[in-house]
Amino acid sequence: MSRGFYFRGGVMKDLFVFVTCFVVVAIVYLVIFLVKLKKKDLANSKEVKYLCLKYKIKLKDINLKRLWPFIILANSLIISASGTLCTMLDLGYVWQLLFGFGLLFVLIYLVYGLIGMILKKVIEKRNRK
């Protein structure tokens, strides 16, 4: 029975869970990238559409082959961090699930915001030349 909000012990166990989850998710996204690359369908991904709409970036200005490794790393980080952090908490399953979803949305917003700002600066710098 849970006695409140605290972290479970085992830093090495949690680190192992994070790294394992990160590697598995990165491999899955790498396979998705390779399939989309073969089908020439990189521009139709939700991640690219989100960045284009939110930061008003034209699709022709983006080098998708150079952007996708960052998307793979970002998605792997978001999923593995939220999964590891919500399993570290000693709460009931419902609260872990709610915390995980909330953390997932916050991390998506923050990480893709960072990618979008960097991408916009790179494109503006390239257009100034």
Describe the fold and architecture.
The structure is a single chain. The model has no long low-confidence stretch (mean pLDDT 88). The chain is 77% helix and 0% strand. The radius of gyration is 18 Å and the shape is elongated. The chain is mostly helical.
Terminus-to-terminus distance: 62 Å
Order of helices and strands: HHHH
Total number of strands = 0
Strand content: under 5%
Round the mean pLDDT to the nearest integer and report it.
Answer: 88
Main β-sheet: number of strands, strand sense, barrel status? none
Radius of gyration equals 18 Å
Global geometry: elongated
Number of helices: 4
Indicate the structural class.
Answer: mainly alpha
- Provide the helix percentage: over 70%
* Uncertain spans: none
Quaternary: single chain
Short description:
By secondary structure, this protein is mainly α. Helices cover 77% and strands 0% of the residues.
What attributes characterize this protein structure?
129 residues, mainly alpha, 4 helices
Which helices and strands appear, and what pairs or packs with what?
Elements: H1 11-38, H2 46-55, H3 64-88, H4 93-128
